[in-house]
């Protein structure tokens, strides 16, 4: 929260790495009990709803490794950053709903969707459009799949977001995962120049705040000092991406019994 300056109500952050989670600062308490959510607080004590998923970008990384090795075999060696750049840019040319493809990134169990074990899967129907662009879009969408189901609970509670800050290695390729996340959340997503920094940097920032804590609140310190003049790129949700991801998510939720059967059979 501190590392992304997301400590005020109607702000939040998404951290995408081996796992993925979203934290949204609430304006008012949630109603009822929601097993998809954890309730924590900002360092200043404001209530935060947290959606945590065990599975993030690891399966995506495995596929990037496959394509990187394919490049090596062709004699066109590329470093990992270049492979991700090409694959992510390719995803931008995919169909909004990933062409009917479905992917699950579950290397481990995912309690949010009721899975004790995970089996990474790529599934398609005969009339789907299997292209590299759609394949990569499906893989990127899958990173946000379970998270989006949890965020749907917050939307049903009337929780509003002015901006979601994103950080983690997934967002190093500018404008791709950020755009798809904006479509998945139907909310603006911002990425700062410090997006690759994480908890350790945030703790250091929080420690520096202690020197001025008596004269300013944490949100004011972050916005007025730490992030004043920071390079922040904000992407608004694209209507086509919102509709396409919604179609993908319906397919994703409908297909979950296939994931459960795969875990039972293999």
From TrEMBL:
Record-annotated Carbohydrate kinase FGGY C-terminal domain positions: 13-210
Organism annotation: Naasia aerilata
Keyword terms, alphabetized: Carbohydrate metabolism, Kinase, Transferase, Xylose metabolism
Domain of life (superkingdom): Bacteria
A family per Pfam: FGGY_C
InterPro entries the UniProt entry points to: ATPase_NBD, FGGY_C, FGGY_Carb_Kinase
Gene3D superfamilies per record: 3.30.420.40
Protein name: Carbohydrate kinase FGGY C-terminal domain-containing protein
Family according to the record: Belongs to the FGGY kinase family.
Matching PANTHER family: SUGAR KINASE, XYLULOSE KINASE
């Amino acid at each position: 929260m501190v590392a992304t300056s997301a400590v005020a109500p109607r702000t939040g952050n998404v951290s995408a790495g081996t796992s993925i989670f979203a934290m949204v600062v609430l304006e008012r308490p949630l109603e009822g009990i929601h097993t998809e959510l954890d309730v924590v607080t900002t360092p200043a004590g404001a209530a935060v709803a947290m959606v945590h998923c065990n599975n993030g970008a690891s399966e995506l990384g495995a596929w990037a490794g496959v394509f990187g090795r394919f490049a090596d075999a062709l004699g066109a060696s590329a470093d990992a950053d270049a492979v991700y750049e090409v694959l992510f840019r390719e995803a931008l040319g995919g169909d909004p709903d990933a062409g009917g493809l479905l992917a699950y990134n579950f290397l481990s169990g995912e309690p949010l969707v009721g899975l004790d074990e995970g089996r990474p899967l790529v599934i398609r129907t005969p009339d789907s459009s299997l292209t590299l662009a759609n394949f990569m879009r499906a893989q990127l969408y899958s990173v946000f799949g379970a998270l989006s189901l949890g965020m749907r609970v917050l939307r049903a509670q009337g929780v509003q977001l002015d901006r979601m800050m994103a950080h983690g290695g997934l967002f190093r390729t500018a404008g791709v995962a950020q755009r798809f996340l904006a479509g998945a959340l139907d909310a603006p997503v911002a990425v700062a120049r410090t997006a690759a920094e994480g908890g350790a940097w945030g703790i250091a920032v929080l420690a520096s705040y202690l020197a001025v804590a008596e004269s300013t609140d944490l949100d004011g310190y972050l916005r007025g000092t730490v992030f004043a003049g920071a390079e922040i790129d904000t992407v608004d949700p694209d209507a086509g991406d919102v509709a396409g991801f919604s179609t993908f998510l319906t397919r994703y939720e409908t297909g979950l019994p296939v994931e459960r059967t795969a875990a039972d059979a293999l």
